[in-house]
Amino acid sequence: MIKSVEEYLDELKAELKDSDTATVQDALADAEEHLRAALTNRSENQSEVSEEEALNQVIEQYGSPEETASAYREVERRTSPGLVREIPTQQVSAIKHFLGVYDDPKAWGALLYMLISMITGIVYFTWVVTGLSLSLSFAIFVFGLLFAVFFMFSLRGLALLEGRIVEGLLGVRMPRRSVFFQKDLTWFERLKTSLTDRHVWLAIVYFFLQMPLGVIYFSVIVTLFTLSVSLMAAPLVQSVTHFPILSIGVMRYYLPSWSTPLFLLIGFLIWTLTMHLGRWIGQVHGKYAKMLLVTD
Amino acid sequence: MVDSSTLTRKFQKEMNAGIASLVLLSVLEKSNEPMYGYQIARLLEEYSGDTSFMKQGALYPVLHSLENGRLLESQVEPSVSGPPRRYYEITPEGRDMLVTWQSVWKQMKSFVDRAIKGG
């Protein structure tokens, strides 16, 4: 019996492991869209049925992962190759692959993430440090318990927010709903649940590290961006303003005019490599965020 | 020996392969606005009554295949309650194709009916 939409998607992915990646992506997106829409509809109309039971009723109509995978494989097999948009990954030349980064939304998303992660990192760090210190200080008061629960609850909200940013900019699938406390727990039990939850502590570690990481990301991107733009702009600025590239004492050094294309090329190469680096960091950070912020 | 339910399921699956395209095109042709997968599945559930002709999950690859053939077009829109939804709409080529397919279906239906009745 399948317990969650995620479990269904995992099984469907495993069933489609030999299929085209685009088919797998379509199948997963279709299944998630359908199952969640059907579950929402059922929870509105049959609130007495448990979520797991409702999910299995929905799957009964939608088809098991095996049946769904077979339907996709069947259509894939029948569709004429002329109509299938195949991505010839192996035939792409090295230059196309190198420059293709400009056409990759993940690379641009990762750069934007690296820029804003310094601000979000500072906010998370401040929040976690303040929250932890106040929770400990207030522990001697009665209301300290309420404050600690509020702080732990806020961490789940922050984790969800960071997850949305990571998914939106880095393209790594993150949870769309926060994990909620059970309704019938007392304040003390809620605090106990949070304190013993490994993921709450992992989230605290993530928020702590997010500030130094954010500062590193921001510095790397801004430095490389400035370097590449400076290299590309230097010969042009020199030709317009006659300002020397280097000035030591009374000596003025100018770039020879033949070096203009060379500087443009080096600047462009550095920026392109920066985009590749950004995309790679984005992928690694996405995996790391998933590991620390997503509950099993 | 293969049991009868397996053979029936196989027969149903083979029949559905072509019919699903006709049904989906017809539903989207009648609709005044673009529809998303779950909406289409609910409508077909109403049409089929208590009998389930095909799993709802099998509709989606057919929708993609019709879109690849330019008989449908789609766009993704955000949803309030979950992941974004893909809304499908019939294209002018799809409408023309539907007229042809409906005539093929009528001929086929009459041929099958006559074959079953025996003349």
Name the descriptors.
heterodimer; A: 296 residues; mainly alpha; two-stranded antiparallel ribbon; flat; B: 119 residues; 3-stranded antiparallel sheet; 63% helix; globular
Give your account of this protein's structure.
The complex is a heterodimer of chains A (296) and B (119). By secondary structure, chain A is mainly alpha-helical. Chain A is built from 10 helices and 2 strands. Chain A has a two-stranded antiparallel sheet with strand order 1-2. The relative contact order of chain A is 0.10. Chain B has 119 residues and is mainly alpha-helical. Chain B has 4 helices and 3 strands, in the order αβααββα. Chain B has helices spanning 4-30, 37-48, 59-68, 92-117, and strands at 35-36, 72-77, 85-90. In chain B, helix 1 packs across helix 3 and helix 1 (4-30) packs antiparallel against helix 4 (92-117). The relative contact order of chain B is 0.14. The A-B interface holds A 23, 26-27, 29-34, 36-38, 40-41, 61-63, 67-68, 71-72, 74-76, 78-79, 83-85, 176 and B 17, 36-38, 41, 45, 52, 55-58, 60-62, 64-65, 68-69, 79, 81-86.
Per-chain topology:
The complex is a heterodimer of chains A (296) and B (119).
Chain A (H helix, E strand, L loop, with lengths): L4 H11 L5 H25 L5 H12 L2 H14 L15 H6 L5 H34 L4 H28 L16 H10 L1 H44 L4 E3 L2 E3 L6 H34 L3
Helix pairs in contact in A: 1-2, 1-4, 2-3, 6-7, 6-9, 6-10, 7-8, 7-10, 9-10
Chain B lengths: L3 H27 L4 E2 H12 L10 H10 L3 E6 L7 E6 L1 H26 L2
Antiparallel strand pairs in B: 1-3, 2-3
